């Protein structure tokens, strides 16, 4: 069985708990950006055809080249999309967090998954098959409008990230990411990186070796990295760097 068959199709015997089951965190599913604006009755129609399943870290959800038959909503945990280079090394394309969806756009293409997906930590996924989604759209065409809105939002985020890549230096991108982890407006701060270095590089769309150089260059702006722990001498200085006023 391929990894993409991990979630059951409508004709399969369910291998995960139905997403309307009592022990499923409906609030987490309902608060996901993909479903946040969808009316409750339409969300329930979708959840009635979806299945949730818990996976350990390192679980292969689907492989590049598998036939696309599900899209997934991350209820909790994190996953990575990756490809394998000709030399056999993983190239991480993107890390997705709880509340995000994966493979929805690809599902409509009805071809093959363009990358592989693996859990980074214990993760709960909600899977919706193509047939189930198609039935939902037939029964409740209005849900399609909300799904299109979510896809447009995803595209806007990608364009914003592309704009930052084009207009900010690598150390500015890293500085901006660190600022997103800080609550204080100024003064010293300390944060813990939520990702391993390789995953962080993928999130920033830079090479891992460039990330190491960026951390080294940030030292002159009062940023010191000690493994996953990062100390910032002055948040205002880091903000000025990001805004190109350092």
Key traits:
alpha+beta, single chain, 246 residues, disordered N terminus, four-stranded antiparallel sheet, 22% strand, Jelly Rolls, Arc Repressor Mutant, subunit A
Helical/strand content category: alpha+beta
CATH level-4 homologous superfamily of the largest domain? Jelly Rolls
In CATH, the topology of the largest domain is named: Jelly Rolls
Helical segment count = 9
Order of helices and strands: EHHEEEEEEHEEHHHEHHEEH
Shape: globular
Pfam family, one: HTH_Crp_2
Keywords: DNA-binding, Transcription, Transcription regulation
Domain HTH crp-type: 168-236
Domain Cyclic nucleotide-binding: 34-154
Describe this structure as you would to a colleague.
This protein is an alpha+beta fold and 246 residues long. Helix content is 37%, strand content 22%. It is built from 9 helices and 12 strands. It has helices at 26-30, 40-48, 104-109, 130-139, 142-167, 170-179, 197-203, 208-218, 235-242; strands at 17-18, 51-55, 60-62, 70-76, 79-84, 90-96, 101-102, 116-119, 123-129, 189-192, 223-226, 229-232. Strand 5 and strand 6 (90-96) form a beta hairpin. The longest helix is centred in the middle third of the chain and has 26 residues, at 142-167. The protein is globular. It starts with 16 loop residues before the first strand and ends with a helix. InterPro entries: cNMP-bd_dom, cNMP-bd_dom_sf, Env_Response_Regulators, HTH_CRP, RmlC-like_jellyroll, WH-like_DNA-bd_sf, WH_DNA-bd_sf. It comes from Varunaivibrio sulfuroxidans.
């Amino acid at each position: 069985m391929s990894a993409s068959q991990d979630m059951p199709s409508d004709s399969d015997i369910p291998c995960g708990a139905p997403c309307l089951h009592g022990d499923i965190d409906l609030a987490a599913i309902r608060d996901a950006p993909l479903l946040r604006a969808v009316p409750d009755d339409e969300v329930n129609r979708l959840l009635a055809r979806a299945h949730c399943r818990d996976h350990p870290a390192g679980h292969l959800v689907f492989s590049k080249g598998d036939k696309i038959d599900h899209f997934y909503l991350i209820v909790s945990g994190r996953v990575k999309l990756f490809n394998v280079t000709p030399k056999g090394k993983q190239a991480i394309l993107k890390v997705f967090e709880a509340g995000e969806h994966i493979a929805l756009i690809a599902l409509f293409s009805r071809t093959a998954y363009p990358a592989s997906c693996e859990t980074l930590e214990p993760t709960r996924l909600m899977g919706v098959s193509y047939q189930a989604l198609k039935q939902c759209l037939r029964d409740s065409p209005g849900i399609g409008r909300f799904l299109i809105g979510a896809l447009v939002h995803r595209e806007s985020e990608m364009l914003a990230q592309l704009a930052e890549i084009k207009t900010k230096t690598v150390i500015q991108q890293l500085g901006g990411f660190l600022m997103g982890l800080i609550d204080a407006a100024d003064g010293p701060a300390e944060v813990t990186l939520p990702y391993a270095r390789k995953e962080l590089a993928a999130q920033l769309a830079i090479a891992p070796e460039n990330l190491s150089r960026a951390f080294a260059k940030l030292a002159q702006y009062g940023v010191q990295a000690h493994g996953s722990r990062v100390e910032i001498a002055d948040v205002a200085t880091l903000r000025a760097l990001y805004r190109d006023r350092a």
